[in-house]
Amino acid sequence: MSGPTRRIGAEDSQSRAHLLDVAEQMLLAEGAAAVTSRRLGRRAGVSSQLVHYYFRTMDDLFIELFRRRAEEGLRRVEQALAVDGTLTAIWDLTSNPAGALFNIEFAALANHRKALQAEIAEFGERYRRLQHDAVAARFAALGVPEEVCPPTVVLLALTGMAQIMSIEANFGFTTGHDEAVTFTRQLLERVEAGEWGVG
Amino acid sequence: MSGPTRRIGAEDSQSRAHLLDVAEQMLLAEGAAAVTSRRLGRRAGVSSQLVHYYFRTMDDLFIELFRRRAEEGLRRVEQALAVDGTLTAIWDLTSNPAGALFNIEFAALANHRKALQAEIAEFGERYRRLQHDAVAARFAALGVPEEVCPPTVVLLALTGMAQIMSIEANFGFTTGHDEAVTFTRQLLERVEAGEWGVG
DNA sequence: GTCTATACTTCGATAGAC
DNA sequence: GTCTATCGAAGTATAGAC
Questions:
Q1: Nearest CA to CA, how far is A109 from chain B (Å)?
Q2: Where are the domains of chain A?
Q3: CA dist B96 to B67, B92, B93, B120, Å?
Q4: What is the chain A residue with the closest CA to B155?
Q5: B53 beta carbon < 7 A from strand C?
């Protein structure tokens, strides 16, 4: 009745956290495909088998990597919005180049690692809801009617723009980016100034 | 003085085209990481070595894959715009789910395949310029002043939105998409109706 | 043009010693 | 908790037969 002898390391282990840190660096610098147990072990100064000791499969590692990052991002955004809930602040939070790189890598990863898909979708929804409520609340405070532009659309447009600019910048292709950033910021500032309010 | 004996198949070969077709399908369905010489050969009904006969390295295959698709997309968009240059038509062209999936995969690929980076950047610029000119021309025809919203920003917002929705939809996450599509279309129609024209 | 044979590398994963 | 030993599978790539 006894199962396999395989052991798994504790979740609060320092080595485990270190492996995740190094894996995160590698993911950002070289892409997810470069994060293999052997390379990760070497980079972290441990044997590749230790990677498998802490993460049963590489899928598990990627899921943990995503979860850790997403959880932290969610917390960070939540706190930032509590301090400053203006539209420009929301925009600043979405324009995170490293975050965009992460999204790309995981979006591609999830294409052939189905276990990741559900995980990502769930966080996506939570994240979107958080942002949506923030925009909706701000619109309400400024007296901007829904019909001018639904918060959902504002969000998709803002995050979409930020995302695409990050990706392009990663290729050394930044044509028009400055103009877009400037215009967007000014537009948001005009909304903040009450230009669209009906109260 | 004679180099290596290695041969490479002709570019107009039918087998070569078939390999690219199958590779394209695989890329879309399972992600770029799933496109290996062995798997591709098996799927295409030939030996994996034939893949290497037509493409010296896998990098070459991915570059060809990208180039073929990009070239065709560029041509398709060019022709479509010649027939119908309205903003709604431009929007329809950017909302291509399969195209977005492609972009994601290649954006991630280029992260660790530097040879692809230059190739993608070049096409990106050409594509963007084409779209930009189309929007600018349409704005001019409708008498919409630059200050309302620079064509660059229109493009980044539209393609950004389309892109992000495709990615999310790929995760089965479509909250707010319908609303965004409807609103965007109506907005573009209002612009087309001359609501922002000054002439 | 396509295949077989083959070399060499790297990968993920497990068992067991210390 | 970390390592050594080890497996089998899969990867890219080349040479040469037909």
A1: 8
A2: 58-192
A3: 18, 7, 6, 18
A4: A161
A5: yes
Buried b (16+ CB within 10 A) or exposed e, A81-115: beeeebbbbbbebbbbeebbbbbbbbbbbbbebee
Nearest nucleotide, CA B61 to C1':
D12
pLDDT by position in tens, chain B (length 199): 445 678 999 999 999 999 999 999 999 999 999 999 999 999 999 999 999 999 999 999 999 999 999 999 999 999 999 999 999 999 999 998 888 899 999 999 988 888 898 899 999 999 999 999 999 999 999 999 999 999 999 999 999 999 999 999 988 889 899 999 999 999 999 999 999 998 7
For residue A10, give the nucleotide whose C1' atom is nearest its CA: D1
Among all residues of chain A, which has the CA nearest to that of B153?
A: A180
User: For an interface test with A, which of B153, B158, B177 has the most A Cβ atoms less than 10 Å from its Cβ?
Assistant: B153
Partners of B33 on chain A (C-beta within 8 Å) are 33, 108, 112
What is the spatial distance between Cα A23 and Cα A125, in angstroms, rounded to a whole number?
25
Q: Model pTM?
A: 0.94
